[in-house]
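To: structure subgroup
Subject: Chain for Friday's discussion

All,

I'm putting the inputs and outputs inline so they're searchable in the archive.
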Amino acid sequence: MKTIIYSSDYCPFCMRAKQLLQHKGVQFEEINVDGKPDIRAQMIERAGIHTVPQIFIGETHVGGCDDLFALERAGKLDNLLNQE
């Protein structure tokens, strides 16, 4: 499942989210929004939220770092990642 994370270089929540995905062996596309107002605007339009990270797994908007970890704790993240 294609995974995209909109992030910023110095965001600790972005780092935690990426670490969890890496730990699970997930390959993801990282889109850095630093100094790129057009990319940030694209993220806001797609997610409806202006903070990073914003994570998408397939067409599902997961949300931010806390949302990603909540899925993991609930045992739902693997199912979402393995959908085709």
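Points worth raising on Friday:
The first helix runs from residue 12 to 23.
The helical segments are 12-23, 37-47, 65-73, 77-81.

D.
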